[in-house]
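Exercise 4. Each item below gives a protein and its sequence. For each, produce the structure-token representation.

Item: Cysteine--tRNA ligase (Actinomycetospora succinea).
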Amino acid sequence: MSLHLYDTARRALREFVPQHAGTASIYVCGATVQGVPHVGHVRSGLDFDVLRRWLAHSGYDVLLVRNVTDIDDKILTKAEAAGRPWWEWAATHERAFSAAYDALGCIPPSVEPRATGHVTEMVELIERLIERGHAYAVDGDVYFAVGTWPSYGELSGQRVDEMEQGEGADPRGKRDPRDFTLWKGAKPGEPDWPTPWGRGRPGWHLECSAMATHYLGPRFDIHGGGLDLVFPHHENELAQSRAAGDGFAEYWLHNAWVTMSGAKMSKSLGNTLTIPAVLERVRPVELRYYLVAPHYRSTLEYSEEALAEASAAYHRIETFVHRVHDRVGAVEVGRVSDAFAAAMDDDIATPAALAEVHESVRRGNAALDAGHRTEALALAGAVRAMTGVLGLDPVVWAETSGAGGSGDAARQALGSLVDALLEQRTRARAERDFARADALRDELTAAGVVVEDNADGPTWTLKDGA
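Answer:
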């Protein structure tokens, strides 16, 4: 089976056929750096990180552009309220987003452009639109004329006469309330750049069209982002880019929201959970598991109980891999199973893919307990391969210092302590001091360490929740 993806524009699953053989080009709408990232923000980054990993695993050279919106009404408003320069406010929170992506194991994008670095490209795009009769300037502002583009609404499926751009009741100089802003004339105290229409700053929708085509060309494969961006942001991107003569994105992919009590997680509603706050309760790899386990198009209702269940589920995976390592030997990366590949090719169906991972863990534990060491080792290798595609490989997380909240150094230190106690226990049993041996085992159990005695000697794992 070849990779099929759900295209929002076509409202159907479509076989993925790239513009250029062997290369997959992706533009993902990144953060508007107005505040500290919450779990709703990073879900998009994680979902498209998994897509990128699967494309790479499938043999594609992946070019992924994820932008930073560092000039925006919300950034200016919040910076002013805090009494801080807008550029410093944006830079501070850009670093917070980068730290969150890094902590959760996202591969850095091929390039991460800032909007403020591409004003020249934005001005050129506006000039093309004006020349083609799809945009007009009024008193320093420039608007896209929606009525000149008959295909407007094709992405979101909304009727043009029912659309609201959310730009205020009476913007300056608009000929039609459906028109949207490409360029905003300068206002006192705001940053601005020179243009043929006077000084000002770019509109949000313009920014992404200019950056996407600058790095990926006039036609590229996939445009991604959160479901909340379908309208007006992506609808407007598509309209202005096509009206300017660019083919733009061939596939449109959208991840669903993270909600609390049925409402989209957002700062304006006050129902956010920041990444630093959540990482005080679970390890980064466990939060990543929680966020990538549902299908990317399924709404994720946040709850502490579900987060705890995800942590326990991931712990079962890593415990199996470590058991095999301790009892059989080093676990090398194997190959993904056919069932896992089929799930990923079916619109990146991570629930089915993880079900295959856990089935392999179950079979591997059974093989290990039955003494079938070769089978257990092969299954552990497959688990490493499959979890690697999802960015969840236990060995990688253990070897990445600090990335898992329980890095290699911590595991080595714990292992040294446990091994010393096990050696004392083995010596006590050899000396028939069974009371001492039992006391040492009880001490380890109380600390969350499960000891198993087998023909190869005692082995240990951490029990769920420890």
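Check: Residues 401-408 have pLDDT under 50 and may be disordered.
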